[in-house]
Design a protein that fits this description.
The complex is a heterodimer. Chain A is α+β, with helices and mostly antiparallel strands. Chain A has 13 helices and 17 strands. In chain A, helix 1 runs antiparallel to helix 2. Chain A is globular. Chains A and B meet through helix 5 and helix 7 of A and helix 8, strand 5 and helix 16 of B.
C-alpha cells in the first residue's frame, strides 16, 4: 500500500508485526461497521476510510499490510469506507474517554511515574464518574492501554450510542468540571444559606464529602475559623454539612471563604480526560490489542479489575527475549522492559538486548539495526 | 369539559393485534405530533379540503411571522380539524423544504406544546406522563424532595445545551440527573422540537395546491442573504462555506466546527467584530464568550485543522485534495476553480 521506500528498521518492524497479527488477538466489536485507519513510519494515520467485511478480512489486511498503527472509528457506519464522512451514514458510536500522560512532559521515553499518574486518573474516571455518577455497569465498560502513554475507556451501551456531539461534549464537560459554578451549588433562601448534602450525587456531593474529610487536616480547619481547633466544633460542623446545612456554622465571611475553598478544590474533584476525543463521534482511536508503532507495546485490553495492577512496561510487552543487536542513536535513560533493565545508553553504543527491548528502542527511533 | 361530551370524543378502536385501543381526541388535539394523534388520523383518514389547506398555510405563516400557533377550541369538530390542519401544515413545510423554515416551525410547535403542558399540569396530569412516554422519557419523583430524576441519556438528549442545564452543576448519581419540577415541561418542549427537526421534511410528492402554498411561505421567509454577515466568502473552501451557511440557518454547529471556522476566518484576516457577528446566528450565542474565544484563537495563533481533521469532525463536504482548508484558494486557483464551477453549474441545472 505504501509507496515510500522503507527503512530497514521499518521493514523489520512490519515483518514482526505481520507475524504477530497472524495469531494475535483481534478485539473489535462489529468490525464490519467500523472505519479503520492504518499508519506507517511517518504518520499514525496514513490511510483511513478502510472498511472490512469482518474479523477474518481485518486479520488478513493486518497480516498483509502490517501497519505500524491500527485505529478504528468509535462510530458505527452503514458504509464505513464511503467518502466524504456524510456518505458513511453514521449509525451511532461508543462513548470513549482518552487519558494521556502527555501533560506530564517528561520526554519521549515511558516514565513509570507518569504512567502511574494517568492510571490513577483512569481509575478515578471509572469508579467515580462512569460507575457511580453515570451508573454504567462494569460489563458496559472496557479499558485498554493506549500503547504509548495513556489509557482508553470505551463505554458500549444502548444509552450512549445515539448521543450527538453536543451531548458528548456535555459528558466531557461534566467529567472535567467545566462550567461548574459555585452559585449554582450554593444558594440563599431567605436568610438561609443552603448547599449540597454529602450523600448527594454530582459535584455538590463530591465537594461536601471532600470538605468534610479535609476538616481532619488542622491547617485546613484553622484556615476557616479558629474555633475549629476544638474537636467538638469540628464534629458539629461536619454533621451539619453532612445534611446540607451550610448555614448554621457560625463562621464569619462564610460565603467568600467557602467560594475560595471551592475554587481551590474543584480541580481535584474533576477528572482529567481529553474532552475533544469524547466529543468526536467519528474519532479514530487505537484498536485495542493492536501494536503501537511508537513503542512496540500492545494497546492491551484489560478487565476492570486488572487496571489497578497494570504495568505497561511489563504487561503490554508483545515480543520475546531472543537476543538482538542494535546501535543506539540518541541518549537513552535507564529503563526496564519486561524483566530486562538497561541503560543509560549513549549514542553510538552497540548493544545486544532482548527483542522486546530492542523493538521498543527501534520504535522510539532511538536505535537502528546493527 | 363535561364527562359525557368527553366520552363522545373517545373512540374505541382496535389495533391489528386485537388490543382495544382508546384514542383520546383532546390529547390528540393538544399533542398532534403524538403517535396517538397519528393513529387517530390514519383511522379516520383526512381530507385535504381547500379550507384545511388555507388554515394550514395560516398556521405556518403565524409560526414564521409571529412565532406563535393558536390553541384550539375544545369542540370535537374543531379538534378533528386541528389534526387535519397539523398534517397539512407538515406537507406545506415539506414541500417548501427549507431548513430555516423547518427549524422555526419546530420551535413554534414545541412552544405550543409547552403551553398545553402548562395547562395540563393542573387539569390533566396524566397527559404529561403520556407525552413523556411518547419520547421514552421517564420522570421519577424525588423521594424526599422536589423535582424528578431523569435518566442521563434522556437528559442529554432533551435538555437545551445552555448554561442553565450544565450537567456539572446538577445532582448526578447512578445514571440519573435531578431536574426541577418546572423543568420537566421545558425538557418535553425540547423533545418535541427535536422530533420535528428530525422528521421534517417528509419525503413525498405533494399535490399542486400544497406546493403552491409552500412556495408562498418561502416568499415570506426573512431574506437570509441580508442576515448573513458578509465575510468575504469568495474562494472559501466548501467546508467553511457550509459552516457559515449552517450558522446563518440557526443550525447548532458543533463546537469543533465553530473553532475551525473561527480559526479560518482569523487566518484570512477577518476582524474579530465580524466573526462575532457571524456567530450571532448560533442558537446558543453569547457575545462575551464568543469574543473571548475568537480573541484567544487570534492571540494564541491557533493552527488550522487539516482536511483529515476536518473530515474526522464530519465537517468535510468535498474532496478538494488541498491538505488544509487554508490552502484551498491557492490550490483551486485557475483551471481547477473553473472546472469546479462548471461542475457545480451542471449540478444546479440538474436540480
Amino acid at each position: 500500500m505504501s509507496q515510500m521506500p522503507q527503512s530497514p528498521e521499518e521493514k523489520f518492524l512490519r515483518k514482526l508485526f505481520s507475524e504477530h497479527y497472524q495469531r494475535g488477538r483481534i478485539n473489535v466489536v462489529s468490525p464490519e461497521k467500523r472505519e479503520f485507519g492504518f499508519g506507517g513510519w511517518e504518520k499514525k494515520i496514513e490511510f483511513r476510510h478502510i472498511g472490512v467485511l469482518g474479523e477474518e478480512q481485518l486479520r488478513a489486511k493486518l497480516v498483509s499490510e502490517a501497519p505500524l498503527y491500527v485505529s478504528h472509528s468509535v462510530g458505527y457506519y452503514e458504509f464505513p469506507d464511503a467518502r466524504p464522512m456524510t456518505r458513511k451514514n453514521w449509525l451511532g458510536a461508543d462513548l470513549v474517554f482518552d487519558l494521556d500522560a502527555e501533560g506530564h512532559a517528561c520526554g519521549k521515553f515511558t516514565c513509570s511515574q507518569c504512567m502511574d499518574g494517568v492510571k490513577a486518573d483512569a481509575l478515578k474516571l471509572i469508579e467515580e464518574f462512569l460507575l457511580a455518577d453515570f451508573g454504567f455497569s462494569k460489563n458496559e465498560l472496557s479499558a485498554n492501554f493506549s500503547g504509548s502513554r495513556g489509557y482508553h475507556v470505551h463505554v458500549r451501551s444502548e444509552a450512549v450510542r445515539q448521543l450527538d456531539r453536543d451531548a458528548r461534549r456535555e459528558v466531557a464537560d461534566y467529567v472535567t468540571g467545566t462550567g461548574l459554578e459555585f452559585t449554582r451549588l450554593f444558594w440563599t433562601e431567605g436568610k438561609k444559606f443552603l448547599g449540597p448534602r454529602a450523600s448527594q450525587g454530582g459535584f455538590g456531593g463530591k465537594f461536601a464529602r471532600a470538605y468534610i474529610s479535609k476538616l481532619d487536616d488542622d491547617s485546613f480547619a484553622l484556615s476557616i475559623a479558629r474555633k475549629l481547633k476544638k474537636p467538638e466544633e469540628r464534629a458539629k460542623l461536619k454533621s451539619a454539612i453532612e445534611n446540607g446545612n451550610w448555614d448554621n456554622i457560625g463562621i464569619a465571611n462564610r460565603e467568600k471563604k467557602l467560594q475560595e475553598k471551592f475554587d481551590a478544590m474543584k480541580l481535584t474533584l474533576a477528572g482529567r480526560i481529553d474532552a475533544n476525543v469524547t466529543a468526536d463521534t467519528s474519532k479514530l482511536i487505537r484498536m485495542a490489542d493492536s501494536i503501537h508503532g511508537g513503542s512496540g507495546f500492545a494497546a492491551k485490553s484489560m478487565g476492570m479489575n486488572e487496571l489497578s495492577d497494570f504495568s505497561p512496561m511489563k504487561d503490554a510487552v508483545v515480543f520475546g527475549d531472543a537476543p538482538m543487536k542494535v546501535k543506539i542513536t540518541e541518549a537513552v535513560p535507564a529503563l526496564c522492559v519486561k524483566d530486562y533493565s538497561f541503560g543509560p545508553l549513549a549514542a553510538g553504543d552497540s548493544v545486544e538486548m532482548p527483542l522486546c527491548a530492542a523493538v521498543y528502542l527501534l520504535c522510539k527511533k532511538a536505535a537502528v539495526l546493527a | 369539559m363535561l364527562t359525557s361530551q368527553r366520552k363522545k370524543n373517545e373512540r374505541f378502536l382496535t389495533r391489528k393485534q386485537g388490543n382495544p385501543l382508546m384514542l383520546d381526541l383532546v390529547f390528540c388535539a393538544h399533542y398532534p405530533f403524538s403517535r396517538q394523534a397519528k393513529e387517530y388520523v390514519s383511522q379516520k383518514g383526512i381530507e385535504l379540503t381547500s379550507s384545511i389547506l388555507d388554515k394550514a398555510e395560516e398556521r405556518v405563516k403565524n409560526a414564521v411571522l409571529l412565532g406563535k400557533i393558536q390553541r384550539v377550541a375544545e369542540l370535537p369538530d374543531s379538534m378533528e380539524e386541528e389534526l387535519a390542519i397539523y398534517a397539512a401544515a407538515r406537507m406545506i413545510i415539506s414541500a417548501a423544504n427549507n431548513r430555516y423554515l423547518i427549524n422555526r416551525y419546530a420551535v413554534t410547535e414545541a412552544k405550543r406544546a409547552h403551553e398545553y403542558l402548562d395547562a395540563d399540569e393542573f387539569a390533566r396530569l396524566d397527559y404529561i406522563n403520556e407525552v413523556a412516554a411518547e419520547f421514552g422519557v421517564k420522570f421519577e419523583k424525588v423521594a424526599n424532595g422536589e423535582g424528578y430524576f431523569l435518566p442521563l441519556a434522556s437528559y442529554l438528549a432533551y435538555t437545551p445545551r445552555s448554561i442553565d442545564y450544565k450537567l456539572a452543576n446538577r445532582e448526578v448519581a447512578e445514571g440519573k440527573v435531578r431536574v426541577k419540577k418546572n423543568e420537566r415541561r421545558r425538557i418535553l418542549e425540547e423533545a418535541v422540537k427535536k422530533r420535528m427537526e428530525r422528521e421534517l421534511p417528509i419525503k413525498a410528492e405533494f399535490q399542486e395546491e400544497v406546493k403552491a402554498a409552500g412556495a408562498r411561505i418561502l416568499a415570506i421567509l426573512p431574506k437570509l442573504e441580508s442576515a448573513v454577515v458578509r465575510v468575504g466568502q469568495e474562494g472559501y473552501p466548501p467546508c467553511i462555506t457550509k459552516l457559515i451557511e449552517e450558522l446563518a440557518l440557526n443550525i447548532n454547529v458543533p463546537h469543533t466546527g465553530r473553532v475551525a471556522l473561527a480559526i479560518y476566518l482569523v487566518n484570512v484576516g477577518v476582524p474579530t467584530d465580524k466573526i462575532v457577528e457571524l456567530f450571532r446566528h448560533a442558537p446558543d450565542f453569547s457575545e462575551k464568550t464568543t469574543r473571548y474565544q475568537v480573541e484567544h484563537i487570534r492571540a494564541r495563533k491557533y493552527s488550522m485543522p487539516s482536511c483529515a481533521t476536518m473530515d474526522s469532525y464530519g465537517a468535510c463536504v468535498a474532496e478538494c485534495h488541498c491538505g488544509s482548508p487554508i490552502n484551498f484558494r491557492a490550490e483551486i486557483h485557475g483551471r481547477r476553480l473553473k472546472r469546479l464551477e462548471d461542475e457545480n453549474r451542471g449540478k444546479e441545472e440538474k436540480k
